[in-house]
Amino acid sequence: MPTPMTSFFDFLLMMIYAFFLIMAISIFFRCLMDIFMRNDLSGGAKVGWLILIFVLPLLGCLIYLLRRPKMTAQDVQAMARAEAAAKAVGNVSPADELAKLTQLRDSGAISATEFDALKAKIVA
């Protein structure tokens, strides 16, 4: 006997179920990664969170996400490093880049056509 075809409604429910299942799994693994990466938690605290998350996955993840501080010292350090990197990149002027390109062309590292193409990118 052939099996009955699933209706559009059954297909839609399966897609919704799959979406929420994938979201729950991704939240679970994100919480695990966050616990292992945090520097402000002691080893015992990490073990406690891991036990809670493995015993009660959904509830443990929700409690962890609610109890986690919005900004840790590690987050502040990462933001400071990113701002310093952006500031360092922003301090390079087009004149400095053209001077470096001229040195590369004069030393033979790049050809005249490559120099012209790179110069056009810098000037534009």
Summarize the structure.
The chain is mostly helical. The protein is built from six helices and no strands.
Structural description of this entry:
The protein is an all-alpha fold. It is built from 6 helices and no strands. The chain is flat and about 70 Å long.
Structural class: mainly alpha
Helical fraction equals over 70%
Mean pLDDT: 88
Rg, Cα atoms, Å: 27 Å
Give the number of helices.
Answer: 6
| Amount of beta strand | under 5%
What is the secondary structure topology, with strand pairs?
Layout: H1 8-37, H2 43-55, H3 57-67, H4 73-90, H5 94-107, H6 112-123
Helix pairs in contact: 1-2, 1-3, 2-3, 5-6
Feature tags:
124 residues, mainly alpha
